[in-house]
Amino acid sequence: MSDQTNYGSAPARWPYPVRYEVENRVETDVLIIGAGVAGAMAGLRAARRGVKVAVVDKSPVDISGSGGSGLDHYLDCFSNPDCAITPEEVMDLPSEENYFLPRRDHRSYIHMKGSWENLLEMEKLGLHFRDEEDEFAGAPFRDEKTKIMYAYDYKTKSSIRLRGGAALKKHMRSGIAAEPNASLYERVMITSLLTEDGKQGARIVGATGLNEETGEFYVFHAKCVIISTAGVSMQGTQTWTFNSEMFANGYRADPRNTGDGVAMAWNAGAELYSEQSFGQTMMTGPFGWPWYGIGNPDNTWHPCTIVDNKGTVIPWIDSQGNPISTIEERTLPAPNERYMSMNRPTPNIDPELIRNGTYELPLWADLSSLPEHERRGIWGLMVGNEGRTRYAIYDYYNKAGFNPDTDMLMCPIMTPENFGNRWKDWFQGEPDNNKFWKADTLKGIATDWNQMSNVEGLFASGSESGQGGAVAGSSGGYAGNRAAEYALKTTHGRISESQVAAEKARVYAPVNRAEEASATVSWKELWMGMNRVMQQDCGEFRSVALCNHGLMWLDSIKKHEMQLTYARNPHELARVLEAESRVTVAEVYLHLCLAGFQTEAEHVAADKLMFAKLIDGELIRTYKDDGWWLKPPYAPTYLENYEKCRALELEKEVK
Amino acid sequence: MAEAYLVPNPIAPNQTVSIDAEKCIGCNECTRHCRTQTIMPNPEAGASPIVIYPDECWFCGCCIDACPKGAITMHYPINQRVFFKRKESGEVYRIGGPDAPPQTYFKPPVG
């Protein structure tokens, strides 16, 4: 128990100087909120356009964000010159052939179109993603000329494996640090957006922040901001469930991904895309296994052979359900398929064959039976560079005696039906087939072709604008350019000191009341309290009455228990503020559900897209025609709009 | 251990990473690379950092990567330790379990 400090001993002193209420004023042109892969690239590109940029992250930028501990494959790279299908062609595919992008808009185009250029930029920053050492010479997924290694679909070549992707964020941080126009603010958590005259919906003039080491306060005065704090959808079910002692286990989502961006944008009057359907239960946690560290045939482990407990090899089927017999076919689209979507070839596990004992559980992932290039492609190239795998899986398992040349890794034991479920990552474990709540379709802040929201000066990129995942950097770079151009033509707005003062009072309240006997509510309890509201009022069955009940319940918590939280150091203070963000996110879900019910009641045409915002307590819905992004005032094609937005940047590059 | 104390309940997992005080030089690089502040600097200058919030560790491994002395070890909780099977012999082992075989695979990760 030597690791357990403070248990029965006097507490250790906080290791940093404590400077609550001390205020730092920073003037910048563009403020980046959250510097994961998207925000870091946004900062770089904006700085290169010649404007002053403040890059702010509540974690150190070399490890922050979903890609902060690595990235092994780069999906959606349809703009790479060897890809058999172009971004324009992908946009034109009928929805049923395009599982990947069932709801396509200009944002999906932006991130696909810029993905290759973004990857080349990361290469310049030091990400040597090609197989320059020729370790994989002759492998079917490697291009002998470019030395690029593809993943999943070796014919279409839309996904690229990232050799050395584990260090991606280190390269990005060094890149920002080298830009004279960019300043880094790490361990600073942005707590609110500042608007002109403090009014909701008015132009953005800056933001406030808190340093989670020293507790000091920041006021950023900026011409515009880019929110790239990762979409709340990446939180998984944390809006519905929370186990304070299970962070480590199945959660893939960054524990610092707490919905701050959605909360601050909503509070500032930004419109959110209002989709409210419930999806699969990815990243649920309590039943999950170490990500990429349990036997499975998909995702980073594609196309690993799966055998049953008696050693019987499970046969595979292609995306159409047709039997395939070779390992090679697992890496090719079906004969009549344009490209391999997420509906990848998979082992054909008939649940009945498990029930009748033909297949005995547990199943095992047999890397040893694969050819060396596929085995090393999974164990070493993918596992080793993917987020949280280099040390937590690759190094850990090797040291524990696991040897991919001779050993098989156990697959999770689940209900038989779960094994037949396509495109399910087995490392999530149960209860994927059970009724479980997750609204994974909150598509974030609504943005236009400039990636600006309805609030002037408020831009979004990455997951926050529905452009998350491996290629988040392409949307970040695009948004960085757009925000810089906006800043070049704009002057600073005026900060409302009363808005700053009110925010400061909110931020430090848990510290100021910590000594009071009534201050008994921890950040964990507040979070769990919010979960209970959502479990009850925003579960599988919902109604107008329940949504209103949920809002009333949250409001009651906000007025009572949320005023009894305490923070004994800057760490706890940041956690309380994050829990408050989560409460706002829960309110957003309930408001969006209500907006959905109102839309139904008014028989709004099904092809209308709804956006919702809250201004002075009033829920406001607006509608646009599907495909509005290719209608006036915009150009009729994706390419024209994209090039128009990047025209000045490209001109500068040529000079 | 004859002494008994009134102490709070332990949190679980209560050991996610541990720091070997013999190897640690107190540089605090691990604390600078922990996004959840699971590991915090020791107020005593030069002493090993303190693993203060193990319940917030999400096993990213950035602390291990940052440590110049290889002093940090990660520990999965019991419920995350999976089995592997030696194909030829059929022997079954558990990651971190008893009688684990010695390391036989030493290739570094790619890149």
Describe the structure.
The complex is a heterodimer of chains A (655) and B (111). Chain A is α/β, with parallel strands linked by helices and 655 residues long. Chain A has helices at residues 37-48, 87-92, 106-113, 115-125, 168-177, 260-267, 351-355, 372-378, 390-399, 416-419, 472-488, 497-512, 523-537, 544-559, 570-601, 638-654, and strands at 23-27, 30-33, 53-57, 73-74, 160-161, 182-186, 188-195, 204-211, 217-221, 224-227, 272-273, 305-307, 316-317, 323-324, 346-347, 364-366, 407-410, 458-460, 608-615, 618-625. Among the domains of chain A are: 299-428, no CATH class; 501-606, Fumarate reductase/succinate dehydrogenase flavoprotein-like, C-terminal domain (Methane Monooxygenase Hydroxylase, Chain G, domain 1, Up-down Bundle), CATH 1.20.58.100. Chain A is 30% helix and 13% strand. In chain A, strands 6-3-2-10-18 form a five-stranded parallel sheet, with helices on one face. A four-stranded mixed sheet of chain A has the order 1-9-8-7. In chain A, strands 11-19-20 form a three-stranded antiparallel sheet. In chain A, strand 13 and strand 14 (323-324) form a beta hairpin. Chain A is globular, with a radius of gyration of 25 Å. Chain A starts with 22 loop residues before the first strand and ends with a helix. Chain B is mostly beta strands and 111 residues long. Chain B has a domain at 17-78: Alpha-Beta Plaits. In chain B, a hairpin with a 5-residue loop joins strand 5 (83-86) and strand 6 (92-94). Chain B is globular. Chains A and B meet through helix 9 and strand 17 of A and strand 3, helix 2 and strand 5 of B. Strand 17 of chain A pairs antiparallel with strand 5 of chain B.
